[in-house]
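ok trying again, last paste got cut off:
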Amino acid sequence: MQVCNALAHSHSHTHGADHSEKMLGRAFALIAGFMFVEVAGGVLANSLTLLADAGHMFLDASALGFSWYAMRLSRRGDDRKLSYGYHRFQVLAAFVNGLSLMALCVWILYESFTRLQTPEQMLPIPAFAVASVGFVINLVAFRWLHGTGDNANVRSAALHVLGDLLGSAAAITAALTVYFTGWLYADPLLALVIVAILSRGAWRVVRDSTHILLEGVPNELDLEQIRNTLSREVPGVIEVHHVHAWALTAEKPLLTLHANVDEQTELGAVVTSMKAVLSETFGIHHSTIQVEHGSCPDD
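nice, full thing came through this time. structure:
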């Protein structure tokens, strides 16, 4: 039964990864194709929200392409240089995407304050037309990426597309406001709203990916709880120590530990039982366990 569950779990992760990779590829093609149209429209209409969205779309195309390639790389097996394989490229892609999103927020912030001091004319009709098409395209791309799994790489790419979606909505609102009222401040003010929303998401992506890159303990794992559970539920285990947990990606936690075992206990059975508890209770499917009689040699 445990073997069947493990196979089902592996198949589920493989299918989810394939689906996420497919959606990333589709979103990349869609965003990259429309990017040139929005750049031309932003320059023609002299709309800051549209130009911000066009710049964001350029970053999106790069980020989505990077994320897609990172997922393809992660499917490679381990080799002599990368013994754990290429999974970390997904985390690296999420980190770079988050940083680029924060840099974009700084640029929009600067341009917004500049235009608040000196408002500039914009052409509302071209801005409205381009932003409306961009809204539909970004909505389709976001629906493709949203809910495809808890992969940090995909989440960071979805945040980029969400930023574009918000940018298109803000550009539509700004164009309509300028068209009907002539109030030029709507453009930079709405751009500031986009910055406030995007910066929070960008910070979360950078924070989470940095935690993984620094080999931090996965948020869902409690090392003390792992120690107590193994000592309590596995016959023959006297004490668990030197517990270290980290993750290749958010979905792939890893663990190493030492276990002091009763001398009358068969070591192979203890290791098998401990791995079963780690897999079924904590979702850790890759662990390295050192079993010991008596004092720990590393102490």
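cool. The beta strands are 237-247, 253-261, 287-292. The CA atoms of residues 146 and 158 lie 6 Å apart.
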